[in-house]
Design goal:
The complex is a heterodimer. By secondary structure, chain A is an alpha+beta fold. Chain A contains nine helices and seven strands; from the N terminus they run E-E-E-E-E-H-H-E-E-H-H-H-H-H-H-H. Chain A has a four-stranded antiparallel beta sheet with strand order 1-2-3-4, covered by helices on one side. A three-stranded antiparallel beta sheet of chain A has the order 5-6-7, covered by helices on one side. The C terminus of chain A is likely disordered. By secondary structure, chain B is α+β, with helices and mostly antiparallel strands. The chains are: A alpha+beta, B alpha+beta. Chains A and B meet through strand 3, strand 4, strand 5, strand 6 and helix 3 of A and strand 2, helix 1, strand 7 and helix 2 of B.
Chain lengths: 348, 194
């Protein structure tokens, strides 16, 4: 087996603890862009000699993420202040500390940016580095290496004369259509522009967004179960969004196949399984509440029954926070979809 | 240098002239977002054709195996076929044809041109950790995580990751889960028959 080349890390985009993201590595004569998915790493090499240009542009994503993280931190702090009892305070205190940690880490990282690299086959967006300060340092490190690798490519008058003489040969006869042999399958270059995805991925993302909205609305209205008209309205909206999930999955099945379809469908299936399980657990707990604690004969189930009482701050806080987080994620997903759908001409 | 290939990502304003090859970030003239563009000598050669290397074959010259009407420029180091300048791929000092290149990738997944790696260490971690939320599933996923670790321990984790810490942690958690279930079954059996 050949010895693997040594790479030096240039930048990493995934925040601490994230299961996916991207990273940029420097090899002997090329840079390696790695996309870290949940169970797979995808590589893209850019040889220093083939790089045409590198472009870095500041983006607004850091500002949006700061608002979201700040809101989550504030919400968790509010629940911490409103909660009573040792267990609920410990829970909300832990959530507040974690949210505050990520919020401060995000602020210290600086403004976000996008990096694009241009070669003969087109341009590609690099997912790492994703911060302006880091991107400047990476570019400062790469620039002399690229210049050195391309020193022999600088245009000289002698080269221009040789090119003109050589091109005269090709003017005599048009190029025949080449018979391209089958090459190892490669990931096709992404579409130009801000968004690079395929239609099936958008359907899967839309279905996931609708699923979150259905669960969030259903959970929020369930927490208000003392008001029957609101419960009925919530169930109706949840049913509408659930129907939307089914419709989007059918449309996805009819859409052209894309390279990321399987990955996002797995994410959708896992999310659906988790949501269904949580709904099932909630119903199970409610059933225990109705039956009464006398029938409970194990410590674990007694704990569930105690937590499910309507007067428990723990249950109230957990239920509302679950509903609000799901709705927030769904709203963000809808905002992202409104941009992404334009890239594939998808009409709502 | 042609600056029309560059545009601000936020507002779409074309960037050219004074916005190219600046040492520091400059504000976009329209949206004031920081931008930096560096172009390299290779872009000056883009679009130019080396006519001598794409010469059309005459009757006296040998032709490419994949493009019969083109002059053969190289001999493939793997199979010995005559190939033209379009087909030749240089790898580790060897000049190969596309078929030998593909065969080399299939035979050696750890080669430098591999394009993806299945992260079995992450799969093992997921199998070991996620089912803890639904602990009855660990009766299956615990041994599955152990199997995944044993099966893929010697496989290269990734091009850029050399450590097997995730596999070790997954093995430890899987071992604890499997041992717990075995202990539970042994205790139940001892109560039933003891």
């Amino acid at each position: 087996m050949n010895p693997r080349p040594l790479y030096r890390l240039l930048a990493r985009s995934s925040p601490f603890g994230a299961p996916s993201g991207a990273s940029l590595w420097l090899g002997d004569d090329h840079i390696l862009h790695v996309r870290h998915h949940l169970t797979e790493d995808q590589y893209r090499r850019f040889y220093l000699r083939d790089i045409y240009w590198i472009r870095i542009c500041q983006t607004n994503s850091s500002r949006i993420l700061a608002i979201v993280l700040g809101a989550i931190t504030a919400l968790a702090a509010l629940f911490l202040l409103a909660s009573g009892g040792l267990i609920s305070r410990a829970l909300w205190g832990t959530i507040t500390v974690i949210a505050l940690f990520y919020f401060l880490m995000h602020l210290s990282a600086g403004r976000s940016c996008g990096c694009w690299i241009g070669t003969a086959v087109g341009e590609m967006r690099l997912r790492a580095p994703s911060r302006l300060r880091k991107a400047q340092r990476v570019l400062a490190r790469l620039h002399p290496l690229i210049e050195e690798a391309q020193a022999s490519l600088r245009t000289t008058p002698e080269f221009e004369e040789a090119e003109e003489a050589a091109s005269a040969v090709t003017d005599q006869e048009p190029y025949p259509a080449p018979v391209t042999p089958a090459l190892p399958s490669a990931t096709p270059p992404p579409l130009p522009g801000r968004i690079a995805t395929d239609e099936r991925v958008i359907y899967a993302q839309a279905a996931l967004t609708f699923l979150l909205m259905a669960f969030g609305l259903g959970k929020a209205l369930f927490m208000l179960r003392s008001s029957m008209p609101l419960v009925i309205a919530g169930l109706f909206l949840a049913a509408v969004y659930t129907g939307g999930v089914v419709y989007l999955l059918i449309r996805q099945h009819q859409a052209p196949t894309g390279p990321d379809t399987v990955r996002y469908n797995w994410a959708l299936l896992i999310a659906g399984f988790v949501v269904s399980t949580l709904i099932g657990i909630q119903s199970y707990i409610l059933q225990f509440q109705q039956i009464g604690q006398d029938t409970v004969n194990t410590q674990a189930l007694r704990l569930f029954a105690r937590l499910s009482t309507s007067d428990s701050t723990w249950a109230q806080g957990l239920g509302w926070s679950t509903a609000l987080v799901c709705i927030t994620l769904a709203v963000v997903g809808l905002a992202v979809l409104s941009v992404q759908r334009k890239s594939v001409g998808w009409r709502t | 240098m042609n600056g029309s290939r560059h545009a601000c990502h936020n507002c779409g304003r074309i960037l050219n002239g004074q916005y190219i090859n600046t040492a520091m970030f400059v504000p976009c003239p329209l949206c004031s977002k920081s931008v930096m563009v560096r172009e390299y000598p290779a872009v000056e050669r883009s679009g130019k054709v080396d006519g001598a290397r794409h010469a059309i074959r005459t009757d006296e010259q040998a032709g490419c195996y994949y493009h019969p009407k083109r002059t053969a420029e190289e001999v493939c180091a793997g199979c010995g076929r005559f190939i033209c300048a379009l087909c030749v791929v240089e790898l580790k000092g060897q000049r190969l044809c596309p078929a030998c290149l593909r065969q080399g990738v299939e035979q050696d997944p750890s080669s430098e041109i591999v394009q993806s790696h299945m992260r079995y260490d992450k799969v093992a971690m997921l199998l070991a950790l996620v089912p803890i939320l639904f602990w009855p599933l660990t009766i299956v996923t615990g041994p599955a995580a152990l199997y995944m670790v044993a099966r893929h321990w010697k496989r290269p984790v990734s091009l850029v990751t050399r450590g097997r810490i995730r596999l070790a942690i997954a093995a430890l958690i899987g071992l604890v889960q499997t041992s717990g279930w075995l202990f539970l079954f042994a205790w139940l059996l001892s109560r039933r028959f003891g």
